[in-house]
Design a protein that fits this description.
This protein is mostly helical. The protein contains 4 helices and 2 strands, in the order αααββα. The chain has one domain.
Length: about 90
């Protein structure tokens, strides 16, 4: 059974923790052993966890997209790479 979690705590969860709790909720809902009122509460919590996971994934994707590798093999941000490209054209 999933440990009670307050919605205010969701924002502090790491991605893996949120996914684990979301999977527990899904398993509980799929089992059919939960009362309707509890199912609605679990569904709402699951939706909040899913939204949090999506935000964390989107943030990670943004960070990855910012990272580029220069011709010399160094990791640079895309803004630094753009500056280097512009200076090469000057």
């Amino acid at each position: 059974m999933i440990k009670k979690i307050h919605t205010s705590e969701i924002d502090n969860l790491e991605f893996e923790e949120a996914m684990e709790k979301l999977n527990e909720i899904i398993q509980g809902l799929e089992s059919g052993e939960v009362k309707l009122s509890q199912s609605v509460e679990k569904f709402e919590l699951g939706a909040q966890l899913a939204k949090h996971c999506k935000k964390l994934l989107d943030d990670a994707e943004t960070r990855i997209n910012i990272i580029k590798i220069s011709e010399s093999g160094n990791i640079v941000s895309s803004s630094e790479l753009s500056k280097a490209d512009q200076s090469d054209n000057d």
